[in-house]
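Structure first, sequence second, as always.
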């Protein structure tokens, strides 16, 4: 889920007409939404129930709005009208769908693998443009799969709909010219590269366990068919691939853990700039974080190790030069954070446009400006 500035089926003001406008007009999102859904407010990060039966006008307005729509909570265990604990399936914001389809750069006759069928709307847009025979879509949730297949057929589209783990791709439909994920990844499955043609594009939200923030990543498969490389395009935030979700670490040693104290003069940039938070996640391997606000306006940055029992807590107060640091464990998380911050500053405070990722059979590596210049991790 994320936001840009386009209404469903209409180009952004001041921008040239998009090549997908005809598909958006022919395939409205409303055809794929359930009778009970939850409209997501990006400003407050809250969701409210909308029922087509109880409020048909409100339902239609939400369906046409440039907002994400939650369609499932808690992997389907949730029941009732009020929101559940964790959103686990959705219809993405139309402007984001349009932007991703533009970045996918499909051409007539190409075959596309979509990972994350969801409501089926994106699959229908692809089928409208490329034809049913050229679209394969994979969804891990059986109930979501069954509903998407039904509404796709009702809308007149019959792509290949597979219930399975999208991390494995779908080899029977390979090779693919384009692979697109509508969920966020932390590791790119090499199966996708093996199932893609040389020169194929892979488009996916990608991020680290450091935060929920993602960035849209576009990779091109090399001629060797074993490697793919590319750059980050723009910030987004999507639900995570189920097998790659974050499992929060247990607090080490319980509430009585003895922590060491110190101070820092680092400026309190964290939590104020999404790009900075995303980039720190690239530099701090095996770390997640949380920002705790306090009643007096201060905020504490918590760092937790995902590899061993260790944490740090740094409390920032505006107007103060020194900030209090507490940390525990053999892994010195605050020192790692300061080292990462110093590298980022020395490198000219790079943003997403300078960062890229390469995937090989041995794993993935991040780089700055050039694949040979690896990020320190």
């Amino acid at each position: 889920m994320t936001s840009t500035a386009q209404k469903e089926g209409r180009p952004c003001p001041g921008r040239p007409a998009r090549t997908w406008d005809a598909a958006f007009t022919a395939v409205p999102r409303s055809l794929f939404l359930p009778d009970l859904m939850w409209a997501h407010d990006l400003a407050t990060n809250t969701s409210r129930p909308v029922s087509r039966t109880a409020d048909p006008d409100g339902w239609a307005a939400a369906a046409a709005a440039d907002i994400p729509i939650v369609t499932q909570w808690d992997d389907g265990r949730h029941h009732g009208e009020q929101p559940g604990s964790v959103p686990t399936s959705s219809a993405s914001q139309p402007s984001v769908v349009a932007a991703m389809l533009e970045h996918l750069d499909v051409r007539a006759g190409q075959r596309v693998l979509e990972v994350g069928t969801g409501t089926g709307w994106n699959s229908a847009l692809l089928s409208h443009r490329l034809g049913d025979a050229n679209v394969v879509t994979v969804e891990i949730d059986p109930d979501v799969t069954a509903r998407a297949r039904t509404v796709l057929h009702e809308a007149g589209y019959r792509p290949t709909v597979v219930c399975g783990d999208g991390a494995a791709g779908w080899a029977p439909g390979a090779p693919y010219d384009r692979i697109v994920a509508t969920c966020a990844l932390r590791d790119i499955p090499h199966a996708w590269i093996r199932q893609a043609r040389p020169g194929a594009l892979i488009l996916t939200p990608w991020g680290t366990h450091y935060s929920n923030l993602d960035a849209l990543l576009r990779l091109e498969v090399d001629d060797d068919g074993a490697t793919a490389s590319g750059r980050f395009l723009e910030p987004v935030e999507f639900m995570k691939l189920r097998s790659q979700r974050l499992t929060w670490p247990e607090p080490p040693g319980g509430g009585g853990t003895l922590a060491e104290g110190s101070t820092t003069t680092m400026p309190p940039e964290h939590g104020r700039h999404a790009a900075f938070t995303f980039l720190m996640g690239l530099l701090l391997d095996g770390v997640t974080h949380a920002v705790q606000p306090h009643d007096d306006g201060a905020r504490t940055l918590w760092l937790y190790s995902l590899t061993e029992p260790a944490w740090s807590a740094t409390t920032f107060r505006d107007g103060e030069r020194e900030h209090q640091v507490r940390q525990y464990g053999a892994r010195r998380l605050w020192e790692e954070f300061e080292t990462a911050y110093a590298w980022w500053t020395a490198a000219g405070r790079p943003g997403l446009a300078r960062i890229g990722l390469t995937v090989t059979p041995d794993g993935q590596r991040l780089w700055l400006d050039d694949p040979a210049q690896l990020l320190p991790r």
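Margin note: Residues 1-17 have pLDDT under 50 and may be disordered.
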